[in-house]
Amino acid sequence: MGVGATLEYFSELLSAKKKKKKKLLQTVDLKVRMDCEGCELKIKNALSSLKGVKSVDINRKQHKASVTGYADAKKVLKKARSTGKKAELWPYVPYNLVAHPYVAQVYDKKAPPGYVRKSENTAITAMNPVEEQYTTMFSDDNPNACSIM
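User: That's the sequence. What structure does it adopt?
Assistant: Structure tokens below.
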């Protein structure tokens, strides 16, 4: 550490200025109802006008708007709703990230292909000993698994 760096360090410690926290670069995904190119353009222009937004990507087929930049998610959502369109944070995740994608709370017919609804409560009740016995009987990990074949 040089003399300049040491002086800078001490000057920062002694200064009475409050530092603002830097916003992190993030991507905010929104589900916005879009029917035509006009809707798409309206949403894109509104979201691009926000301070700190670097790029806006629109996928009209999935009704998805992705905003990349230093903008807050709440402000992006508020700006999208100000266009008069129904908007919400992207409620879907890829189905391979969910342990049980066809559980009633997770499976959604309106979800884009390959996606299911985000859900925190996807836990399945534990199996009783009899069910456990049947599932391990035909397991690939068990060398004596299937004696029927």
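The mean pLDDT is 79.
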